[in-house]
């Protein structure tokens, strides 16, 4: 897709330049999320079957701002939004708030699916952090709309992806798959022709099943409402409104932190309760053993 024009909110495909507040329900909106260097942009290109997003092999981020492009699948319009490194622990400051705001604006009125991209066999602490950040950016409830996409599917060799997921000893990955109710698929972003179409069919089957479960509803929250409101303002008034919008993005992100702390404290509390319960169990066992030994020696003495 050539000649993609830029907007103040990132990069957007030419046929998307109109206001999308009332986008038809037949349009499918997908947002690529995950850590830097995991293959989000390459996955977006595979979905659209053309090199729309800049993609290079490496651990460093290539995407510097939110980008969006449209394609079609079996006659249905697909919007794919690629994201910069906003899901990293080091992401912070005004630039991060702007990137998050742009992501909301480009995917308004809300995404049907968040595609959480991770590299096969490389689910690390950075990926775990990215999952946490996804919950911060979109809200914990957005995990109901997440599909995990494993890149480098070709590394499976003769093993199936189901076997890999079932047999993994990575606890964090297993937890993520369970949280997403086993919604996942694999991508070889070097694939062409029938292989490329086959893996896209597999992804769309998962996506369409998820859509049916949600009865076609997409994910939205208060910030998506604010993004739609901003899109509805006249161009000559958007400057001040955009500043107010970014302030709301910042308030949204800062509002997520107490929830994250509360959840962390709850996990610590559960661990402490489990530890105390285990200690009590061992103490009871020791007392029982001592009672048995004392009783045995008492009988021997008689």
From TrEMBL:
One of its GO terms (molecular function) is GTP binding. PROSITE patterns: G_AIG1. The chain crosses the membrane at residues 272-296. The keyword Nucleotide-binding applies. Residues 25-228 form the AIG1-type G domain. SUPFAM superfamilies: P-loop containing nucleoside triphosphate hydrolases (SSF52540). Keywords: GTP-binding, Membrane, Nucleotide-binding, Transmembrane, Transmembrane helix. This is AIG1-type G domain-containing protein. It comes from Molossus molossus (Pallas' mastiff bat).
């Amino acid at each position: 897709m050539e000649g993609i024009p830029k907007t103040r909110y990132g990069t957007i495909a030419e046929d998307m330049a109109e206001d999308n507040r009332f986008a038809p329900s037949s349009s499918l909106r997908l947002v690529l999320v995950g850590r830097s260097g995991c293959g989000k942009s390459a996955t977006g290109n595979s979905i659209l079957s053309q090199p729309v997003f800049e993609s290079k092999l490496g651990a460093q981020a290539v995407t510097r701002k939110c980008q969006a492009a449209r394609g079609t699948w079996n006659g249905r319009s697909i919007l794919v939004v690629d994201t910069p490194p906003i899901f990293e622990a080091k992401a912070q400051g005004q630039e991060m708030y702007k990137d998050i705001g742009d992501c909301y604006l480009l995917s308004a009125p809300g995404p049907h699916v968040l595609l959480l991209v991770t590299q096969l066999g490389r689910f690390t602490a950075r990926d775990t952090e990215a999952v946490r950040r996804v919950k911060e950016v979109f809200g914990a409830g957005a995990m109901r709309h997440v599909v995990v996409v494993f890149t480098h599917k070709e590394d499976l060799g003769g093993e199936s992806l189901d076997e890999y997921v079932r047999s993994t000893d990575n606890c964090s990955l297993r937890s993520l798959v369970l949280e997403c109710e086993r919604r996942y698929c694999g991508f070889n972003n070097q694939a062409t022709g029938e292989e490329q179409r086959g893996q896209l069919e597999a992804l769309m089957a998962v996506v369409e099943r998820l859509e049916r479960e949600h009865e076609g509803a997409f994910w939205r929250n208060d910030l998506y409402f604010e993004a739609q409101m901003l899109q509805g303002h006249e161009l000559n008034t958007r400057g001040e409104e955009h500043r107010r919008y970014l302030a709301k993005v910042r308030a949204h992100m800062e509002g997520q932190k107490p929830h994250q702390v509360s959840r962390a404290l709850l996990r610590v509390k559960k661990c402490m309760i489990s530890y105390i319960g285990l200690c009590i169990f061992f103490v009871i066992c020791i007392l029982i053993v001592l009672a048995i030994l004392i009783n045995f020696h008492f009988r021997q003495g008689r």
